[in-house]
Amino acid sequence: MEPLGATTVFLAVCVSCLLFFSTWRKMSGSGKLPPGPVAFPIIGNMLQLNVRNLPQSIHELSMKYGPVFTIYLGSLRVVVLYGQEAVKEALIDQGDEFSGRGKLALADKLIKGAGIIFSNGERWKQLRRFALTTLRNFGMGKKSVEERIQEEARFLVERLRNTHERPFDPTIPLTHAVSNIICSIVFGDRFEYEDQKFLTLIKLTEENNEVFRSLLGQLYNFFPTLMDYIPGPHQVLVKNSEAFTRFVRERVKMHKESLDLSCPRDFIDAFLIKMEQVSEGSSPSPFSEFNTDNLVRCTLDLFFAGTGTSSTTLRHGLLILLKYPEIEEKVHEEIDRVVGRSRSPCMADRSQMPYTDAVIHEVQRTANIVPMGVPHAVTRDTHFRHYIIPKVSSQRFCEMARSSAFSTIQEFPKSEQFNPGHFLDENGAFKKSDFFIPFSAGKRICVGEGLARMELFLLLTTILQNFTLKPLVDPKDINITLVTSFVSNAPKPYQLCVLPR
After folding, report:
1. Beta-ladder partners of 482
2. For the chain, what percent of residues have pLDDT higher than 70?
3. What values do phi and psi take at 57, rounded to 5?
């Protein structure tokens, strides 16, 4: 038994040495990769990171290693760019090189590189260009995007009025309203708030968001092979994804049956027409990116992106106003002076409402819904500052720590505080900031940026035009600390009352 035990120990030592040597080789990168903490085999730097608050861990590492450094999430090498200057230099000055999309294991499992958000190369270029053109062309239907948002804002006001000043959680009504806006654009119509299919979509979306934010969901992105064999909520994502796909395919079938090639009603119609044009072109290609699979995935990309971040930002905004009633009162005064009570707010009002605009920007800054950004990748071996970042592969991507640009002391002196003055000059006029990048920047900037900006302004001003917010506790006792994760930030659940004005 002793010789066998000695042999086992010897083999274990050899395997450990090989693993350490392999890790050292990856970290050394021929001396060209950015520096970073020493990583352990298999688990990488996981023991040195707070998975529940990864942005804070990234901030602490940046203080030691500078704005460009390397970490390992499991075996996945991540080059982190931290700070506005580094992010801008990558996304703007070297936009072509940093325009790739990095791997995210959960997304890769469900999406497999289809659609807009997680695609690369020619597929991404064609589908993104088409989505941007289509969204910019609205009104190509009966109503412009602004009119759609104003219409949904009126439905939301009626729903809030029906709470009859009783306490309620704003999550559901805000999510329904924001989701209905993107639904009207991609599916051609809004849903009644009691529609069972719509409620199922929202329920599945919320369920997926919870899984992505959960500890097991985050661990899946670092150890996908292992997590595939471990039971847990992350396993429901495949089932939910299949349900979403079935729903969209049903809508596509309905659209095909009533399609008018000369009059597209929504995004699905526009995509179907594009598919028809490609198939009937002078040289139709069997490998066209305009196919049913990409139609389904693009529709879901727009639905998810158009449902989650804006509703979460609005929820954070209402909580902030409950905490600071003096800020709410100033917004009320500006709304009354510029808009009044007899008509709906419109986008033309925004230029005359600098304080409200500053409040919305500060809500976005402090919420910082996607603190780490969606992973970027380099499209080729890239020289960046004094280093070389290797071309994307299954094990390498670059992460932009966007949260750092929101907390720069020089630009936002009281960055830890909610202060609309961050976006106002000495005369009270609205002041833009290059450090404000909630929709990312460069070639991968959010396709729905314009829509989201309109939603935030029109929905928030319409709510405050009609209601005064009432907290259930003393404002000084309201906790505005966000629940943080690797994927996203969100306010803790809360309730409020709305009082008609």
Report:
1. 491
2. 87
3. -65, -40
Look up residue 8 and give its amino acid: T
Helix or strand run (H / E) with residue 70: strand 68-73
* The CATH number of the domain covering residues in 32-500: 1.10.630.10
Extract the runs of DSSP E, i.e. beta strands, from 321-429.
376-377, 382-384, 387-389, 396-401
pLDDT digits (tens, 9 = 90+) for 248-285: 999 999 999 999 998 888 999 999 999 999 887 655 56
CA distance 310 to 314: 6
Return d(Cα 43, Cα 378) in angstroms, integer.
24
**Identity (one letter) of the amino acid at 499?**
L
> Nearest-CA neighbor of 198 among 209, 208, 183?
183
Residue carrying structure tokens 């979460």: 312
pLDDT tens-digit readout, 166-204: 999 999 999 999 999 999 999 988 999 999 999 999 999
| Cis, peptide link before residue 100, omega less than 30° from 0 | no
Q: Is 446 annotated as a binding residue?
A: yes
Task: Choose among 186, 193, 192, 308: nearest CA to 247.
Answer: 186
Q: Give CA–CA dist 353/332, Å, rounded.
A: 11
> Which of these, 35, 45, 80, lies nearest to 402 by C-alpha position?
80
Answer with the residue of higher pLDDT: 490 or 332. 332
For every residue of 241-264, which 3-state class applies, written as one string? HHHHHHHHHHHHHHHHHCCCCCCC
Burial of 446 by CB count in 10 Å (0-12 exposed, 13-18 middle, 19+ buried)?
A: middle
- The whole-number average pLDDT for the span 430-437 is 87
Residue 413 tokens read as 């002196």
**CA 407 to centroid of chain Cα atoms:** 19
**Entry pTM:** 0.87
Q: What one-character-per-residue DSSP string does 369-388 give?
A: SSTT-SPEE-SS-EEETTEE
Can you tell me whether residue 359 is helix, strand or coil?
helix
What does the DSSP 8-state code read for residue 408?
A: -
Q: Quote the CA–CA distance of 305 and 266 in Å, as a whole number.
A: 17
